[in-house]
């Protein structure tokens, strides 16, 4: 059974973790990582890219990511082994909108590094960043065809909020349903009061 996540608040970056004999570094992105992300994107296969919000193999997607970092609409954490990027987590929030209390997270780990606990660590780190940035509710968007991921997120404390039919379109032009799940920091907000 997967236990609920505990957001890691007030972290200082970068920091290292030993995971199964590997030294992993978590680094808060500062906008200088364009080349590192380009190298990372070259490792992505079609299945990896299928449901990514942006196709990171396109230079303009990485350019947009860097722009969002400098505008402070995005805060991202890279997971590094040595100098190589093996995963990331991002918090997307626009503090000027009436939804400024909401943040969306995105998380990805290269397949060969999955099942090591990195996903949970990244979730705790990015939820901590969300909390530190006054986010009250964190949302995550999951394709409906990934029920195992939905189950894991629910066990971590995320709850299903909405199902949007035919909301996603894959590179082959097929549409898919989108599930929106949310993690609420405030118990009063969790209860819907």
Description:
The protein is of the alpha+beta class and 193 residues long. The protein has a domain at 15-137: Gcn5-related N-acetyltransferase (GNAT) (Aminopeptidase). The chain contains six helices and eight strands; from the N terminus they run ββαααβββαβαββα. The protein has an eight-stranded mixed sheet with strand order 1-2-3-4-5-6-8-7, sandwiched between helices. The protein is globular, with a radius of gyration of 16 Å. The mean pLDDT is 90.
Strand elements, count:
8
Rg computed from alpha carbons, rounded to a whole number of angstroms: 16 Å
Give the low-pLDDT segments: none
The oligomerization state is single chain
Shape: globular
Strand order of the largest sheet: 1-2-3-4-5-6-8-7
Q: Helix fraction? A: 25-40%
CATH class of the domain at 15-137: Alpha Beta
Number of helical elements:
6
- How many strands, what sense, and barrel or not for the largest sheet? 8 strands, mixed
Q: Helices and strands: which structural class?
A: alpha+beta
- CATH topology title of the domain at 15-137: Aminopeptidase
Beta-strand content: 25-35%
